[in-house]
Amino acid sequence: MTHRYLLYPLLLLVMTQLAPLWHDRRWYRTQIIQRLIILAIALYALLVPGNEWWTAVAWLLFVVIVGGPRWLLRQATRARRAGNWLRAAKWESRAGRVIMGRLGWLHRQHARALRQLAWDETDQAENLLEELAERPLPSAVRGMVWLWRLSLLSEQRAWMATVTFFEQVDDWGTLWLATRARLIVARAYAEVGALLPALRCLQFVAISPAVVRVEQLYRQTRVRLAAMAGDTDELERLLDQRTLWRRGFQRFAAYWRGRCALARGDRAGAIKFLSRAYALTHPSDRGWRQALRYHFARAETADALEPPAGQLPGYAPALAAVRQAEEQAAPWRALMNFAQPAPVTLVLLAEICLVFVVLLFLPAGLADRIVNLTGNGRFTIQHHQWWRLFTTLFLHANWLHLGFNGLALWMFGTAIERAGGWGRMLVIFFIGGALGNLLSATFAHYDLAVGASGGIFALLGAYGVAVYRLRGPAHIGLRKRLLIMLALMVAADLVIGGLEPQVDNLAHLGGFVAGIILGVLLPARRRGVSSTAS
After folding, report:
1. Burial (CB count within 10 angstroms: exposed 0-12, middle 13-18, buried 19+), residue 390
2. Residues 106-122 pLDDT 10s
3. Phi and psi for 449 in degrees, rounded to 5?
4. How far apart are CA 56 and CA 48, in angstroms?
């Protein structure tokens, strides 16, 4: 595999970036020009021999222009949540300078509003964001500005203002922004004692396909509402879920156990847990420390506490509706939540990497002999060496080959394992991969072919079947877009295989078709999959 293989995914990524911008091309003119420059450099490196270093230039530009702002904005979000407005403004301003154009200017204005907030000029900050939203903006950009303002109100703990502003906005621009807004306002509703509207917001979020992008935040909000309802059983059930085990979990759990005790009227328990959370909070985390001091004072000074909100007549049905929405959306979340590899997929990926590393450090003659005995090719059919159909799945030609296949196995193996179980994933990978390799060996163009791509394309075919089987009105549009995307991925791979003789198109195509057949024939997972997102 040559540097050309690094260019094909870059070209696809850039085209994917360009497609949504083209609808409002006058407003996104700078972003379109940036991506067209990357596209031109990548095409030049692809078509003109002897210019391999342009591949690195194209990827570097892509990382800086596309990845850089996202990283900077994540740092700004973390600083905002910690209550450090000046640091958040610094990161936001840097992101705006990298983004450039009108969109970059908008982010720099947001940084200006954050600085005003740091200087206690709250009204000026809100007025600035309101003025920005009144400009002629694409609907998605206007929704982003509205979300900035909603976040600003929430992070100041202005709960009633947060609820009022949310109810005034009719259109958030995109499903993703609407989902984020409902998560924010769910907290605000709960803080003002309106627990039932908060649960209705969470019901919308749970059924939304965009929840996979904010799974962690959604789970944290569920914990928040259970604690504020005084629902100890629900709180402990949620805290036991693995998605919440991350850095800072002990403080998080102690804080919400304290809030739950406070909601139930247990002052001693509230003081105990809130004191533990305060001890676990770093002095620089001003937002957490301020909230802890406030609720600690409530626990010490309140003369009487209201009955737990969980005792309200409508709480149980509302909570049941949220759980039902989670169950309905569980298949979708299982197919799309591959941020972390599933356990058996991770083991399989580790074994493939281990084989590659071991062969890399063996003496060259011994390594070549092992590959010649285990790789797929005409010997598979001529000498009935059927083990080659399976063993070749663990072999890779170089780091680049291993990297691409490893990433694809991570994504689609994880999706199939979480949606259908680890046994289903292994059967599809090995049987589908073997059938794809059999097709390649039958019409062999190579003396020796290696790689896990036959099994990976089998997983891709089964993934397409699982997506096609998704039901529910919330998934109709996304199911169509996903199936189109999968079809384009397969078509692009076949085109690349036609351009690059090293690519074993027969193994890919055979594995893909076998994966579709296995996806249809294998029995569906009987037990619920709602736990797979946890």
Report:
1. middle
2. 999 999 999 998 888 88
3. -130, 135
4. 15
